[in-house]
Amino acid sequence: HVIIDEELLRIQKNIIGSILKRFTMAILSGKKISSVSLPIKIMYPISLTFSYFFIFMNINELKKAVMCDDPKSQLEHLSVFLISNLYYMINYIKPLTPYIGETCQAYLEDGTYFYSEQISHDPMVTYLYIINEKHNFKILFPIEFKFNVFTNEARNHFKGVMEIHLKENKVFATLPELFVRGLVMGSRKVGFEGFI
């Protein structure tokens, strides 16, 4: 996936040198990269606790999985749910870092409720709970967010095991690593590496 939003690229390229300098100073002084605050103009005006809900927007596939009696068909719909939601993870602007104890609640008209709470800052851990009693599914997911910056690349590693309940079945899944290449030079590209 190549980013073509020229205004966003211009804003990000103007501050990339400053950010790299801050990261270098933090590393040289023995601090963690997570201690470096980023310029507000590259922030998305929502909290990380809310932005995780974007990962699970394709709820219809999850409902189709619940309706299947055949385990193979159920797994196929669950796979489509997990893979198609990767599209929603591609967000080019960083969300705001939440406070410990910060919560977020949301719901969809079909009766799906989303809950999240920031339970740790270092490491950055958010606990997600998604439930729909009418359609008989729920997801429990303590997700640890790790961010690494290299010379021309940034990586978001989502550590944690997602527990998905579909009727009486329980499935476990993970999220792949998200990368952004072309931070300083070349075309800006976003993609995934790893397994679900």
Low-pLDDT residue intervals, each spanning 5 or more residues: none
The biggest sheet amounts to: 9 strands, antiparallel
What is the 3D shape? elongated
The tally of beta strands, per DSSP, is 11
Output mean pLDDT: 83
Radius of gyration: 18 Å
The helix/strand class is alpha+beta
Calculate the terminal CA-CA distance, rounded to whole Å.
19 Å
Fraction of residues in β-strands: 35-45%
Total helical elements: 5
- Please trace the helix and strand order, writing H or E for each element: HEHHHHEEEEEEEEEE
Q: Portion of residues in helices? A: 25-40%
Question: Summed up, what is this model?
Answer:
This protein has helices at residues 6-28, 48-51, 59-67, 71-84, 86-89; strands at residues 43-47, 94-96, 103-107, 113-120, 124-132, 137-149, 153-159, 162-166, 169-173, 177-181, 189-193.
Written account of the structure:
With 196 residues, the protein is α+β, with helices and mostly antiparallel strands. The protein has 5 helices and 11 strands; from the N terminus they run αβααααββββββββββ. The chain has helices at residues 6-28, 48-51, 59-67, 71-84, 86-89, and strands at residues 43-47, 94-96, 103-107, 113-120, 124-132, 137-149, 153-159, 162-166, 169-173, 177-181, 189-193. Strands 3, 4, 5, 6, 7, 8, 9, 10 and 11 form a 9-stranded antiparallel sheet that branches. Helix 3 (59-67) runs antiparallel to helix 4. The protein is elongated, with a radius of gyration of 18 Å. The mean pLDDT is 83.
